[in-house]
Amino acid sequence: MLITVKLSLMPINLEANLPTLEQLPNTYLVSLSHYSAISICGEEQSKYLQGQVTCDVTMSTEHSLLVGAHCNAKGKVFSVFRLISRNAAHLLIQPKASIESSIAELKKFGVFAKVEISETNDLGFFALVGEDAARLLQNSFSRIPDSLNPVVQSDSTTLVYIAGKQARYLLIDTTATLESVLLDINLPIYNSAVWDLLEISEGFVQLSNESSGEYVPQMLNLQAVNGISFTKGCYLGQETVARMQYLGKNKKALFSLSSTLKEPIKSDDIIEKQLGENWRKAGDILCTYQADDGTCYFQAVLGNDVDNSTQLRVKSQPESIMQIEALPYSLTVE
After folding, report:
1. 247 pLDDT exceeds 90?
2. Radius of gyration, alpha carbons of the chain
């Protein structure tokens, strides 16, 4: 079954089914309709952003991809983003749900710097995923990104390589231009929920309006994905972030879990763990994906003492049994 959506000039058919990870095809496209970016440009764009985010902005080049977080003064995360350069501006790519609070804070302090801060409403975002992704891109573009040069510009289109369990490429341009590319690639296009599934599997946090401003970066595993620089200068929230890292005060972490549910997951559900004969709250659910067969994938913040021996369940469905899924990185501090 397909769902037809009209992006600009022509309709795009989206797959209506919600497959499990194992049911996804060899190579496919994903519409990132729930994604956007904050654009920061101007004479002092790098200097200003350096004092606002956890990553080292001085390392950003036209071909680099950085991961970072924007925190408040108490070290709580407004947004987690992938930072690239496009047309001489910094783009902080992230879900639209976390942009509102983040951009408001950036603009508040931005009045004192020579910068222009805005949301990129003129850009569309799609992803090409799978084994044949690189070959297919080579048919449409003169150059494609890789692990050494994760970001390349091909005419007006920005291509971004995201390393992980499987190759993922972001395609960023106007929707009209992207539509032409999608027709050339000619693969099934899944809706944005499938991107959430992939991010859950990769352990890359997806913040919502509700979870924005609730957690410090280490609770979201940012230190494990090179999203925090501990050698750069001062930035908003740095004292809290450093204290968590060096004094061992962080007691929470981001987990990927799965279960089979008989009912749809509730938006305000929580995860419980068993203590003797009783159950108590184990943590909060940040993002979910429920496949058509009932398989449900969760991204949640739990106590970092949780392991495979911990009995976990979804509170609203007490018969559920949750499994902890392996993440593609280590949380062990060396």
Report:
1. no
2. 20
Dump pLDDT digits (tens) for 168-221.
Answer: 999 999 999 999 999 999 999 999 999 999 999 999 999 988 898 899 999 999
**Residues 157, 209 contacting (CB under 8 angstroms):** no
Res 296 pLDDT > 90 = yes
User: Residue 111: pLDDT above 60?
Assistant: yes
Q: What's the gap between Cα 280 and its chain centre?
A: 29
Q: Is 157 exposed, middle or buried (0-12, 13-18, 19+ CB in 10 A)?
A: middle
Picking from 87, 34, 80, the residue whose alpha carbon sits closest to that of residue 213 is 80
Average pLDDT, the chain: 93
Q: What is the pTM of this model?
A: 0.94
CA-to-CA distance for 131 and 146, rounded, in angstroms? 14
**CA atoms of 65 and 275, how far apart (whole Å):** 43
Residue 32 structure tokens: 């990132």
Q: pLDDT value at position 96?
A: 95
For position 4, what pLDDT does the model report?
Answer: 55
CA angle (81, 323, 259) in 5-degree steps? 85
Element (H, E) at 97: none
pLDDT at 3: 53
Domains of the chain with CATH codes: 1-214 (3.30.1360.120), 251-325 (2.40.30.160)
Q: What are phi and psi of 80, to 5 degrees?
A: -115, 135
| CA–CA dist 141, 164 (Å, integer) | 22
In order, the DSSP letters of 155-187 are TTEEEEEE-SSS-EEEEEE-HHHHHHHHHHH--
